[in-house]
Design goal:
By secondary structure, the chain is of the alpha+beta class. It folds into two domains: 215 residues, no CATH class; 141 residues, 2-Layer Sandwich (Alpha-Beta Plaits). Helices cover 45% and strands 12% of the residues. Strand 7, helix 11 and strand 8 form a beta-alpha-beta unit. Helix 7 packs antiparallel against helix 9. It is elongated and about 70 Å long.
């Protein structure tokens, strides 16, 4: 039998407050840019050039499909080299305080910042530009803007021959980011995942042997998912489906959930909904067992060790899933590593709509702490033992 660790780590590619979150999330996606000031501690971090372009491509595809407006403003500081970084930092602070949480701020190099504005038309761009002019004080900068499709988008996404400029702003090291909390979370992830791998290794070996003997194909199912800030990584699960299964069924299911068309997948009733695919023909007999008991998720402990995931966090989406997201949905993958379990798994699971699942993820991101992680991990054990909401 193949070595499981080598196989995984190898080279293979409702309260009032809850209602208030819903209003804020949906208001942020309005067509005309509203004058909002976001708490800097909850604002998305600035993205370096490569990651900003990845988000730009996702938003372009979403706009091509939905026909919703998409605008962008590029800021040129033109400062002298010795003053450039300080000027960019001050301008970045102004933009962080002024943008919506759904907007995406990026560093393009060459004295330039860019602000991507989903669901915003030309009128919204003008409103924001006037507001920023009043807040920037003595900062010297110029702007160029456009609403997709526009030459500004084409020029930015044209093939780049010049080497990528080093990202100098070190936004993640600013006081807004709790480095201590991030280091503590990572330490807990490493210790917890390592201990669970040792403790559960007999169960994982038994599951691997059962998969080999009951269905032809690999033990581990590898799939590309999107992690923090949309960075792709290889996601591990025990294989629970037939080899080379067609994913069209799941694509249609995801599209229906995101579009709010839950009725056809509701295996419960209107009062107690239960959203799952009916009789998925791709699942093997033993696969149904490990999915119902969540054993199929155990290989993700190796994703945690590698640093792709955390024990607790939002679930990592597939690329075709993220392409169907509304702009505010993307916030669930911008600020934090994805997790094996999370607030949705212990409070909603298959009984909530897709939008409510995202709201639970955003609530977790806003309130993330070691104590919340501990509570979620303990509740996860109870949910798994009860097989609550499992397929």
């Amino acid at each position: 039998m193949p070595n499981l660790a080598h196989d995984l780590l190898g080279d293979a590619p409702r309260s009032d407050g809850f209602r208030g979150e819903r209003v804020a999330d949906e208001a942020a996606a309005s067509g005309v840019y509203m004058r909002l000031t976001v708490n800097p501690t909850s604002a998305s971090h600035m993205l370096p050039k490569s990651q900003f372009f990845r988000q730009l491509q996702l938003e372009k595809r979403r706009t091509d499909r939905s026909k919703a407006p998409l605008s962008m403003i590029v800021f040129h500081t033109g400062a002298a080299d010795r003053q450039r970084i300080q000027t960019l930092k001050h301008l970045a602070d102004v933009l962080q305080r002024s943008k919506r949480e759904t907007d995406i701020l990026g560093y393009l190099g060459e004295h330039r910042l860019a602000l991507l504005l989903p669901d915003t038309n030309g009128v919204g761009v003008e409103t924001l530009t006037r507001n920023l002019s009043g807040r920037a004080g003595d900062l010297k900068y110029s702007t160029s803007s456009g609403t997709y499709p526009d030459q500004l988008f084409d020029s930015l996404l044209a093939p780049q021959k010049a080497p990528t400029e080093i990202f100098p702003l070190l936004i993640e090291d600013s006081p807004q980011t709790s480095t201590v909390s991030a280091l503590l979370k990572r330490a807990v992830d490493l210790a917890g995942a390592t201990a669970l791998i040792v403790l559960l290794s007999p169960l994982m070996v038994a599951a691997a042997l059962a998969i080999v003997t009951t269905s032809p194909g690999p033990i581990i199912f590898r799939q590309v998912r999107l992690g923090r800030r949309g960075a792709p990584f290889v996601f591990y699960k025990f294989r629970s489906m037939v080899t080379n299964a067609d994913d069209q069924i799941h694509r249609e299911y995801v599209q229906s959930l995101i579009d709010g068309k839950h009725r056809e997948f509701n295996q419960g009733n209107p009062e107690n909904p239960f959203y799952k695919l009916r009789s998925d023909p791709r699942i093997t007999r033993f696969g149904a067992v490990i999915r119902a008991t969540s054993i199929d998720e155990l290989p993700q402990l190796f994703n945690v060790v590698k640093g792709d995931m955390s024990l607790v966090g939002p679930r990592p989406p597939l690329l075709y899933e993220a392409e169907k997201y509304q702009s505010w949905h993307l916030r669930r993958i911008l600020d934090i590593r994805p997790g094996i379990t999370g607030l949705w798994q212990v409070e909603g699971r298959s009984r909530t709509s897709f939008d409510d699942m995202v709201r639970l993820d955003l609530r977790y991101i806003r309130n993330c702490s070691p104590w919340l992680d501990l509570r979620i991990l303990l509740k996860t054990v109870l949910v798994v033992l009860r097989r609550d909401g499992a397929s």
